[in-house]
Amino acid sequence: MQKRDHGGNMDAAIAQYGGDPKSWIDLSTGINRVAYPAPVFPDNIWGALPTQSLINETKAAAKLAYKSDAPMLITAGAQGAIQMLPHFLPRGEMRVLAPTYNEHAASFRRAGWRVKEVPTLADLNGADVAVVVNPNNPTGAIFTPNEILNLSKLVGHLIVDESFCDPYPDHSVANLAGQSGLIVLRSFGKFYGLAGVRLGFVLGDKIMIEKLQDMAGPWPVSGPALAIGAQALSDKAWAAKTIARLHDDVTQLDEIAANAGWARKGGSLLFQLYETPDAHLAQDTLAKSQVWSRIFPYSDRWIRLGLPANATELERVKYALARGGK
Q1: What average pLDDT does the segment 200-228 reach?
Q2: Pick from 182, 223, 174, 139: which is nearest to 62 by CA?
Q3: Bridge partners of 266?
Q4: Tens of pLDDT, residues 215-260
Q5: Is CATH 3.40.640.10 the right assignment for the domain spanning 10-35+237-322?
Q6: Cβ–Cβ < 8 Å for 269, 243
Q7: Would the pLDDT of 154 be above 70?
Q8: 114-118 and 93-97 as β-strands: parallel, antiparallel, unpaired?
Q9: Residue 175 has what DSSP assignment?
Q10: CB 205 within 8 A of CB 178
């Protein structure tokens, strides 16, 4: 069985290098380290089942944020949809643009699909189901809506995972998701820095969403998650301020990496991918200063870093690499 490795595995880092969660800077994910300030909720949010009015309020906020009127299902993160879709669609060959987030291929393989990982958009042509992560994780490759729309006409179903697309609204195809065969996934936790909330959305045509709703059951997401999502997705000022900050943070992190002798290979406003002489050595060097990073089983040179939260964290990264990150 294929190993489903991920970032965020702080237990493993602490077991190997010591320390406690509060002393570490976890840059192994693409989760915004400056999270949206979670509100305090009245008791009824915690004590009652999620109401339809709260579900509707969260959907309305998401549709405005994603500029889409497409039918929508709220899920436990984008992962909730990734787990369901292989069982909903008729089995055949699934192709995924790779390297990318490994849960797409793993979920389809586990459901009995033939899975092929391919290097270009053109290689997806003719697939029963094609998957594109846009922007891609970990390379940051990003595709235009026209490229995505053209591809959707050449495959049976096209799943577009837009988990990292919040800072790139002009590249989203969420507004096209109502057309037959196009499925768009959105993750709340990445950009808003609240991955523990487990909130996501799948957008598609009416029949597909109704069938997925039946599969997900009546309460796939908690009331507090819905309430946080409704408020955060409506806060346009926070989103704009965050995007501006992330641009500055990327510039500073790239400078630190370049001074360490690393070459930028790609990335997004939520993570950066670098090429190093030895990825394992680079991760070890950072970990000795209790900075956790992400390396990949398919490359001995690539390392991915999330964006540090502030100047203090940037200095920690700079200091760690100065000790031997080359």
Answers
A1: 96
A2: 174
A3: 273
A4: 999 999 999 999 999 999 999 999 999 999 999 999 999 999 999 9
A5: no
A6: yes
A7: yes
A8: parallel
A9: G
A10: yes
